[in-house]
Specification:
This protein has helices at residues 2-21, 58-65, 128-135, 147-152; strands at residues 40-47, 50-56, 75-82, 85-94, 111-116. It is α+β, with helices and mostly antiparallel strands.
Length: 154
């Protein structure tokens, strides 16, 4: 009886890990920025000891400022610092048909999201499903939380 309880508990624990593992970062179509210096810094967001420099292309900024859709290939990159040290990067990237890889209830247009370590490797500890969930609320702003900052960028 005791061994059956242990086995049941072990199976339940494995099922819990398996179900949560699927929600974490997975390889997808988002690419690490080839040249962050080619993108334009358009805003900085500060949250306590963390600040985020937010970058995108001039083409994307122009599209936003002209009220147009962001072109496929657009990347929005957050360079995230903790205690003045580069901690990680968040990249959202748009590609034709990319949204079709997700069910409609969790789709963010054709945007996909990825977390990276500063060396360019995928940060598998982060939950990309959570990213989609939050960014869904910004559909009217191209799924961006910094859309208004981009509209005002010079």
């Amino acid at each position: 009886m005791k061994s059956r309880t242990i086995i049941s508990a072990s199976l339940a624990l494995c099922a819990a890990f398996a179900s949560t593992g699927a929600a974490y970062a997975e390889p997808n179509k988002v690419t690490f920025p080839e040249d962050l210096g080619a993108l334009e810094l358009y805003t900085t967001v500060t949250r306590g000891n963390i600040f985020e420099n937010v970058y995108t292309s001039r083409e994307a900024l122009d599209a936003i400022q002209q009220g147009e859709d962001l072109p496929n290939g657009t990347q929005v990159v957050l360079e995230i610092f903790r205690d003045e040290e580069l901690w990680r990067l968040f990249v959202m990237e748009k590609g034709e048909g990319w949204g079709e890889e997700y069910d409609e209830a969790s789709r963010t247009g054709d945007w996909q999201f990825q977390w990276y370590w500063p060396d360019g490797t995928i940060n598998m500890e982060e939950n990309t499903a959570r990213c989609r969930s939050c960014h869904m609320s910004r559909e009217d702003r191209s799924y961006m939380f910094t859309y208004n900052d981009a509209r005002r960028a010079e």
